[in-house]
User: What shape does this take?
Amino acid sequence: MKVGLFIPCYVDAFFPEVGVATLELLERFGCSIEFPLNQTCCGQPMANSGCQEDSAATEALFVDCFQGFDTIVGPSGSCVHHVRFHLDAIEQTPQAKKVRAGTRELIEFLHDDLKITEFPWAAFPHKVGLHDSCSAVRGLGHTRPSERVYEPYFSKTRDLLGKVRGLELLEIDRPDECCGFGGSFCVTDEAVSAKMGYDRVHDFYRHGVEYIASADMSCLLHMKGVIDRLKLPLKVIHIAQILNGGPQ
Amino acid sequence: MSRPVDPEGLAARFIDLEKHETTHDRQVWGMRQNRDKAVADVPEWANLRERASQIKEHTLTHLDQYLEQFEQNATKHGTHVHWACDAEEHNALVHDILQAHGVKSLIKSKSMLQEECGMTPYLQKRGIEVTESDLGERIQQLSNEPPSHIVVPAVHKLRSDVAVLFAKDIGTDPNDSDPHHLTEAMRQAARPRFMAADAGMTGANFAVAETGGFVVCTNEGNADMGASLPSLQIASIGIEKLIPRAQDLGVFIRMLSRSALGSPITQFTSHFHGPRRGGELHVVLVDNTRSERLGSADFWHALKCIRCGACMNTCPVYRRAGGLSYGATYSGPIGVILDPGFNLEKYREIPFHSSLCGSCSEVCPVKIDIADQIYKWRRVVAEKGLLKLSKKVGMSAMGAVLSQPKLVHAGESVVEQTLPHMPRFLLYNKLNPWGKHREVPVAPGQTFRQWYLKNRRKNS
Assistant: This one.
């Protein structure tokens, strides 16, 4: 299957290893990967701040980069959520519609589209805490949100991580509480954002977690900033890295 | 132009109080957990939500008919029905009624609408003594603060704060913060005020068109006392509180307190149909921007709100920031989408006081798309040119760079070359909010794009 690889701007700059893990993982399942070199960003930072006008050119570039693909996969719930639900600062041409409909987040692509049930190469003998991001849980439906106590529980993320040898998933007090990243919120509402981050990280820490795993590197970027400041013995890891056989 | 409120700055101050913030977060999250338990016991919750939402949408799209039906039926019971376009008209109407009856002192139960109208200061300025009878509201009144939560108005205070406050007002021991002692002391202090009041005021949770009655839900019974002791009762009711039939209460009453506090029902659910014998009952139906909102395709769903506060309890920003940080009548997620509709210039920062986590939309018993409306209010703020200058400049610069691959791909190499070598004082200063409580990420040796060009490009 031909797949257009979408690597969000901050992953490209700060976490290239997550991009590599995503690419290698998809290759393991026989996908033919192409990374359009002109891609930069999906437009979310501007659009989330209300600036439709400022996000239009970036959104147009995104559509231009990916219009040749039926399937576009990116390792980020938040960016994929923007593309699917909010990429509307530009005219909704057939190309834009096709790109939006074809954009998949890595977890849902593996779980729903490829229906992967085994990762024979993957072993991760560590205590892991799962950080399901808000966009992944409430936006894309990776996991039943904690608010919906009246619906049966499911978690695509847990289904996949459950196939990794040696991985021990630990429960925390507030399973899907926001970590406080929130895009530009993390600097415009600095005190609240940082406090949310401190609380989130401490929830993992007091439950004995070694690695905080997430499908969203932006949340992890924020929480890593907190962990490093507090000098806590915690590490962050993208789920693509775990599924691809551990950090390289 | 109104000076914009600064929710971020006010929040930072609340967080600096440390014990207040951690206690607040724990208690308010506790209400969310109680809500989860209560909701899990109702297997048909999803159906109830859908039904509640449909009833509200139906009523709001036929509001003119239901309002007139309510007026007719209420009048049949001997209730006087008044109409107020805005806050000023509401306050003047209430004042006229009070004056006509020679009222000197008024006892009132909790009403967010009366808060919204600024009624208490209006009446006090005109020589009428106003006493809040809800314990939390009384605490807020004595503190000269608005309620910080629509259900538990003083939840941002510690018990010790209340002990100090009561010591000053009713002479209790400032070092005794036992909630039972404090509550009992205020109960004893409030009784004479109830007895002496010339009029009682309430709000309403629901107004029923087919009966012309209205329903007030409380946990303290204070609304009932205030409505029963004096011979004059006045209720302020927002026009969005209408529901068509008495049987619809079977949906809403089941959801209200479960969503709010996790209890199956409020301690008191009082139905008022006409004045008590020998008394007078007045109802003031208030618009105050509701009609305008009803005409807005993006925002009219906010009128479905039944003021349960579930969105506040679940909101991670509200729990850290405290309700007073919004600087408005309504706080929390529902405040974020209501406040800008009252005064966009004043409340232009409020839509950014959210991480857009979406939990509010999930707990809302009437299925208001709260998070989506927050997102849309940001657009309105930007379109009206009301964005903070720093954000405006930052976003247009970002948009200009991110739409040009050549600039971006040159830019990253600069970042990765310079960031690791920057002295700490350049990264961690007042101009970089990221670095105040967090370490700045270190860019590794190469970008993914560079890796790809080296390792895969040659094969394709």
